[in-house]
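1st attempt posting a full record on here, be nice pls
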Amino acid sequence: MHAEEISAKVLEKMKLFAEARIGKKVKNAVVTVPAYFNNSQKQATLDACKIAGLDCKRMVNEPTAAAIAYGLEKKTQEEKQILVFDLGGGTLDVSILRIEEEAIEVLSTRGDTHLGGQDIDDILVKHCMQDFKTKFNVDLKNNKRAISRLLNQVRRAKHQLSSAHSSTIEAESLAEDKDYALSLSRALFEQLCQPVF
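the predicted structure (as tokens):
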């Protein structure tokens, strides 16, 4: 399948969700795209909308959509500049926006298409694997099941650290009937992830 066809499948599913929610057919859409999308990527998105049976009335870049979602364009009549920071699973985008009289202008956008939450997950999993090897002299590098279980646990711990000062990564019988537990403080988390930050 072409990228446009795959995107259209996602849009079709979103269209179905919207129709189920509002109880009538959806024909028109406002679609967001990354701020760094070039003209051919924007055209591909428009093509995906057509394939999905949607008329794209407006295309909005994601940082502008985030500012609108938070109502930032309505909170003051003074000109202001804001920074929108978007750390996703695999990408990082940072945009500077100017907001003036309910108009939003993207002044600058930069990012890294190979940096995201997955990089943090990988650091934490590697740390746990090394800790497990130190504690039990068992190497997990070829144990896909154990690595998958650790990944689920580090993601849970990472989310908990958003509001707590510590979390515990636990897995019963992780490998060779060895139970694993690691207390992960926010300080240790920040130390381990410093290269990404």
